[in-house]
């Protein structure tokens, strides 16, 4: 019976987690934060030093707690909003507001996503090539940040109309949350991995629980990345303590620990959040 339950746990969570992790693993540099709880537009989590999921840092010593990447604060979205105040950017704001005002109701998720992506693709190309305040900056990172800002500005205003718009989404969310809750009996042993102090996963759990606080795909993915970074650090610490510090981590190490974190977190509206990220993250920034 326990083996059947474990199989059910992996079958229930694997597809959701694999999709989120794959979308998140795009090399975005992130940092854990405690004070960004998704205000009116879902304030963007702060970028950190270059930290890419799957590229291990130095193993933590046995006396260290999971580390938090850090760097001087820099909010690229606020920079983007300041640039929108430039006179040359007034047509950008007008175009965005007009699109939101005219956005049709009654679209399926796929139709809405296609409508959004077509608009963002055309508007982004025009903005970066013809709008002076954006076109004059040829730095690749600055242009990427502008594209991210454009997506965030638009989707934060459409969120109420495109997130979990189908009543069936609420039923799917409730069903998945009940299934995850029913898996609370699962232990590290059931998943075939050495046990660790679950308090070390507290930050990972907290990040997963914050996914639903944010309105746009990238911010939701940042939460997933932050959680994965903590789990990665916990696993490296466990290797150090077991005397296997030189062994590289694998998916067989990572996925069971992620399942434990998801069961502990049981994130609200997980199904809707996964579907939202998959549908509305711009295809050019999906892995």
TrEMBL record:
Coiled coil: none annotated. GO terms for cellular component: cytosol; endocytic vesicle. GO terms for biological process: vesicle-mediated transport. Residues 56-68 have a biased composition (Low complexity). One of its GO terms (molecular function) is small GTPase binding. Residues 54-76 are annotated as: Disordered. PROSITE patterns: VPS9. This is VPS9 domain-containing protein. The lineage of its organism: Eukaryota, Sar, Alveolata, Dinophyceae, Suessiales.
């Amino acid at each position: 019976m326990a083996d059947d339950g474990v199989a059910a746990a992996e079958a229930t969570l694997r597809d959701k987690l694999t999709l989120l992790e794959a979308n998140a693993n795009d090399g975005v540099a992130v940092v854990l934060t405690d004070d960004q709880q998704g205000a009116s537009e879902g304030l963007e989590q702060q970028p950190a030093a270059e930290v890419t999921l799957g590229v291990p840092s130095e193993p933590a010593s046995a006396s260290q707690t999971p580390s938090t990447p850090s760097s001087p604060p820099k909010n690229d979205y606020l920079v983007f909003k300041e640039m929108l105040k430039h006179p040359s950017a007034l047509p950008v704001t007008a175009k965005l507001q007009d699109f939101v005002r005219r956005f049709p109701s009654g679209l399926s998720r796929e139709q809405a996503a296609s409508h959004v992506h077509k608009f963002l693709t055309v508007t982004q190309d025009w903005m970066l090539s013809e709008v002076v305040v954006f076109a004059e900056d040829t730095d690749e990172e600055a242009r990427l940040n502008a594209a991210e800002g454009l997506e965030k500005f638009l989707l934060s205003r459409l969120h109420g109309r495109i997130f979990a718009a189908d009543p069936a989404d609420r039923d799917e969310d409730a069903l998945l949350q009940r299934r995850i809750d029913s898996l609370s009996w699962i232990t590290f042993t059931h998943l075939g991995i050495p046990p660790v102090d679950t308090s070390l996963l507290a930050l990972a759990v907290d990040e997963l629980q914050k996914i639903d606080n944010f309105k746009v795909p990238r911010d939701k993915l940042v939460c997933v990345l932050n959680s994965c970074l903590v789990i990665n650090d916990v696993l490296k610490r466990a290797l150090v303590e077991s005397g296997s510090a030189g062994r590289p981590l694998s998916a067989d190490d990572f996925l069971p620990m992620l399942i434990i974190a998801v069961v502990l977190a049981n994130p609200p509206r997980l199904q809707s959040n996964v579907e939202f990220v998959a549908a509305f993250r711009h295809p050019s920034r999906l892995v």
